[in-house]
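Exercise 7b. C-alpha coordinates:
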Protein backbone atom coordinates (compact mmCIF):
# COMPACT_ATOMS: atom_id res chain seq x y z
CA UNK A 1 0.00 0.00 0.00
CA UNK A 2 1.41 3.39 -0.99
CA UNK A 3 0.17 6.60 0.63
CA UNK A 4 0.77 9.70 -1.48
CA UNK A 5 1.98 12.58 0.65
CA UNK A 6 0.22 15.91 1.10
CA UNK A 7 2.17 19.05 0.20
CA UNK A 8 3.46 21.36 2.87
CA UNK A 9 1.80 24.75 2.43
CA UNK A 10 4.97 26.49 3.58
CA UNK A 11 7.15 24.55 1.14
CA UNK A 12 5.19 24.87 -2.11
CA UNK A 13 3.11 27.88 -3.09
CA UNK A 14 0.81 28.64 -6.00
CA UNK A 15 3.75 28.44 -8.39
CA UNK A 16 3.54 24.64 -8.38
CA UNK A 17 6.31 22.14 -7.76
CA UNK A 18 8.96 23.96 -9.82
CA UNK A 19 9.29 27.65 -10.67
CA UNK A 20 7.58 28.90 -13.84
CA UNK A 21 9.42 27.92 -17.01
CA UNK A 22 8.84 27.51 -20.75
CA UNK A 23 9.93 23.87 -20.62
CA UNK A 24 6.79 21.84 -21.57
CA UNK A 25 7.89 18.89 -19.45
CA UNK A 26 8.22 21.10 -16.36
CA UNK A 27 4.83 22.69 -17.09
CA UNK A 28 3.24 19.25 -17.30
CA UNK A 29 4.89 18.26 -14.02
CA UNK A 30 3.47 21.34 -12.30
CA UNK A 31 -0.02 20.57 -13.65
CA UNK A 32 0.20 17.01 -12.36
CA UNK A 33 1.37 18.29 -8.98
CA UNK A 34 -1.64 20.60 -8.72
CA UNK A 35 -4.00 17.79 -9.79
CA UNK A 36 -2.61 15.46 -7.17
CA UNK A 37 -3.15 17.73 -4.21
CA UNK A 38 -6.03 20.01 -5.18
CA UNK A 39 -8.66 20.07 -2.44
CA UNK A 40 -7.00 17.18 -0.63
CA UNK A 41 -6.77 16.50 3.07
CA UNK A 42 -3.61 14.99 4.54
CA UNK A 43 -3.94 11.19 4.58
CA UNK A 44 -4.40 9.61 7.98
CA UNK A 45 -3.33 6.18 9.09
CA UNK A 46 -6.26 3.91 9.95
CA UNK A 47 -6.00 2.29 13.38
CA UNK A 48 -6.37 -1.48 13.39
CA UNK A 49 -6.80 -4.20 15.99
CA UNK A 50 -5.46 -7.74 15.85
CA UNK A 51 -7.80 -10.72 16.05
CA UNK A 52 -6.53 -14.29 16.41
CA UNK A 53 -8.59 -16.63 14.23
CA UNK A 54 -6.72 -19.67 15.54
CA UNK A 55 -5.50 -20.66 19.00
CA UNK A 56 -2.36 -20.18 21.09
CA UNK A 57 -0.57 -23.18 19.56
CA UNK A 58 -1.50 -22.22 15.99
CA UNK A 59 -2.16 -18.48 15.80
CA UNK A 60 -3.87 -17.03 12.73
CA UNK A 61 -3.75 -13.25 13.20
CA UNK A 62 -5.77 -10.83 11.11
CA UNK A 63 -6.12 -7.05 11.40
CA UNK A 64 -9.41 -5.18 11.14
CA UNK A 65 -10.27 -1.50 11.41
CA UNK A 66 -10.65 -0.27 14.97
CA UNK A 67 -13.41 2.22 14.11
CA UNK A 68 -15.88 -0.46 12.95
CA UNK A 69 -19.03 -0.82 15.01
CA UNK A 70 -19.44 -3.90 17.22
CA UNK A 71 -21.92 -5.45 14.80
CA UNK A 72 -19.65 -4.77 11.82
CA UNK A 73 -16.70 -6.39 13.61
CA UNK A 74 -18.79 -9.44 14.47
CA UNK A 75 -20.08 -9.76 10.90
CA UNK A 76 -16.58 -9.39 9.44
CA UNK A 77 -15.03 -11.94 11.81
CA UNK A 78 -17.91 -14.34 11.17
CA UNK A 79 -17.42 -13.99 7.40
CA UNK A 80 -13.68 -14.66 7.67
CA UNK A 81 -14.30 -17.73 9.84
CA UNK A 82 -16.74 -19.04 7.23
CA UNK A 83 -14.06 -18.83 4.54
CA UNK A 84 -11.05 -19.50 6.77
CA UNK A 85 -9.79 -22.23 4.42
CA UNK A 86 -9.34 -19.66 1.64
CA UNK A 87 -6.37 -18.05 3.43
CA UNK A 88 -2.83 -19.44 3.51
CA UNK A 89 -1.42 -19.28 7.04
CA UNK A 90 1.70 -21.34 6.32
CA UNK A 91 3.47 -23.12 3.47
CA UNK A 92 1.49 -26.33 3.99
CA UNK A 93 -1.75 -24.47 3.25
CA UNK A 94 -0.59 -23.76 -0.31
CA UNK A 95 -0.97 -27.02 -2.19
CA UNK A 96 -0.18 -25.45 -5.56
CA UNK A 97 -1.52 -26.33 -9.00
CA UNK A 98 -1.78 -29.77 -10.50
CA UNK A 99 1.03 -30.13 -13.12
CA UNK A 100 -1.67 -31.28 -15.54
CA UNK A 101 -3.18 -27.80 -15.28
CA UNK A 102 -0.04 -25.69 -15.49
CA UNK A 103 3.70 -26.26 -15.38
CA UNK A 104 6.52 -23.73 -15.53
CA UNK A 105 9.72 -24.46 -17.42
CA UNK A 106 12.78 -22.24 -17.75
CA UNK A 107 13.55 -21.23 -21.32
CA UNK A 108 17.33 -21.63 -21.00
CA UNK A 109 19.54 -21.08 -24.03
CA UNK A 110 20.73 -24.59 -25.03
CA UNK A 111 24.15 -23.15 -25.89
CA UNK A 112 24.57 -21.54 -22.44
CA UNK A 113 27.21 -23.11 -20.21
CA UNK A 114 25.83 -24.06 -16.77
CA UNK A 115 27.31 -22.12 -13.86
CA UNK A 116 27.97 -23.52 -10.40
CA UNK A 117 28.51 -20.59 -8.06
CA UNK A 118 31.12 -20.97 -5.35
CA UNK A 119 29.51 -21.66 -2.00
CA UNK A 120 29.18 -18.66 0.29
CA UNK A 121 29.61 -18.88 4.03
CA UNK A 122 27.31 -17.19 6.53
CA UNK A 123 27.50 -16.36 10.21
CA UNK A 124 26.21 -19.14 12.52
CA UNK A 125 23.09 -17.19 13.57
CA UNK A 126 22.22 -16.48 9.92
CA UNK A 127 22.88 -20.11 8.96
CA UNK A 128 20.49 -21.30 11.65
CA UNK A 129 17.70 -19.11 10.22
CA UNK A 130 18.47 -20.31 6.68
CA UNK A 131 18.33 -23.97 7.70
CA UNK A 132 15.03 -23.44 9.49
CA UNK A 133 13.45 -21.73 6.47
CA UNK A 134 14.79 -24.29 3.98
CA UNK A 135 13.42 -27.12 6.16
CA UNK A 136 9.96 -25.52 5.98
CA UNK A 137 10.20 -25.36 2.18
CA UNK A 138 11.30 -29.00 1.95
CA UNK A 139 8.63 -30.25 4.37
CA UNK A 140 5.91 -28.42 2.44
CA UNK A 141 7.12 -29.80 -0.90
CA UNK A 142 8.08 -26.42 -2.34
CA UNK A 143 11.66 -27.52 -3.02
CA UNK A 144 13.50 -30.82 -3.16
CA UNK A 145 17.12 -31.89 -2.89
CA UNK A 146 19.04 -32.39 -6.13
CA UNK A 147 22.11 -34.63 -5.99
CA UNK A 148 23.90 -33.63 -9.21
CA UNK A 149 22.64 -30.24 -10.42
CA UNK A 150 24.02 -28.56 -13.52
CA UNK A 151 23.21 -25.11 -12.15
CA UNK A 152 24.05 -24.02 -8.59
CA UNK A 153 22.94 -20.63 -7.24
CA UNK A 154 23.69 -19.28 -3.79
CA UNK A 155 21.14 -18.33 -1.19
CA UNK A 156 20.86 -14.62 -0.40
CA UNK A 157 19.40 -14.11 3.10
CA UNK A 158 17.45 -10.87 3.53
CA UNK A 159 16.71 -9.85 7.15
CA UNK A 160 13.09 -8.93 7.94
CA UNK A 161 11.88 -6.38 10.46
CA UNK A 162 10.50 -9.18 12.66
CA UNK A 163 13.97 -10.68 13.04
CA UNK A 164 13.39 -13.57 10.64
CA UNK A 165 15.20 -14.13 7.37
CA UNK A 166 13.68 -14.14 3.90
CA UNK A 167 15.33 -16.62 1.55
CA UNK A 168 16.21 -15.24 -1.87
CA UNK A 169 18.33 -16.80 -4.62
CA UNK A 170 21.16 -15.28 -6.67
CA UNK A 171 19.77 -16.04 -10.13
CA UNK A 172 22.04 -13.64 -12.03
CA UNK A 173 23.87 -16.38 -13.96
CA UNK A 174 20.64 -18.22 -14.76
CA UNK A 175 18.93 -15.01 -15.84
CA UNK A 176 21.81 -14.27 -18.21
CA UNK A 177 21.22 -17.66 -19.87
CA UNK A 178 17.52 -17.00 -20.45
CA UNK A 179 16.15 -14.83 -23.29
CA UNK A 180 15.01 -11.37 -22.27
CA UNK A 181 11.31 -10.56 -22.20
CA UNK A 182 10.07 -8.73 -25.26
CA UNK A 183 7.60 -6.59 -23.33
CA UNK A 184 8.95 -3.44 -21.60
CA UNK A 185 9.06 -2.99 -17.85
CA UNK A 186 6.73 -0.38 -16.30
CA UNK A 187 8.00 3.17 -16.68
CA UNK A 188 8.55 4.85 -13.32
CA UNK A 189 7.28 8.25 -14.49
CA UNK A 190 4.03 6.71 -15.74
CA UNK A 191 3.51 4.77 -12.50
CA UNK A 192 4.01 7.95 -10.46
CA UNK A 193 1.59 9.88 -12.70
CA UNK A 194 -1.02 7.16 -12.12
CA UNK A 195 -1.02 7.90 -8.38
CA UNK A 196 -2.26 11.45 -8.92
CA UNK A 197 -5.69 12.15 -7.49
CA UNK A 198 -5.62 9.14 -5.17
CA UNK A 199 -4.64 8.78 -1.52
CA UNK A 200 -3.84 5.07 -1.75
CA UNK A 201 -2.55 2.59 -4.27
CA UNK A 202 -2.98 -1.08 -3.39
CA UNK A 203 -0.76 -3.95 -4.47
CA UNK A 204 -1.24 -7.69 -4.41
CA UNK A 205 1.72 -9.30 -2.67
CA UNK A 206 2.80 -12.91 -2.31
CA UNK A 207 2.39 -14.97 0.85
CA UNK A 208 6.04 -14.76 1.82
CA UNK A 209 7.69 -12.28 -0.47
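Sequence design result:
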Amino acid sequence: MVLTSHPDEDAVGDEGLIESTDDPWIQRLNILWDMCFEQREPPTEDKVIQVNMGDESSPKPIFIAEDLSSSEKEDLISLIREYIDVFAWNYEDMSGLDPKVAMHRLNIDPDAKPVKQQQRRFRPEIMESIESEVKKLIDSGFVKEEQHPDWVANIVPVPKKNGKVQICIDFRDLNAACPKDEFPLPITDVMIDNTCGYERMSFMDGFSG
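Instructor comment: The CA atoms of residues 122 and 128 lie 9 Å apart. Residues 48-93 form one domain.
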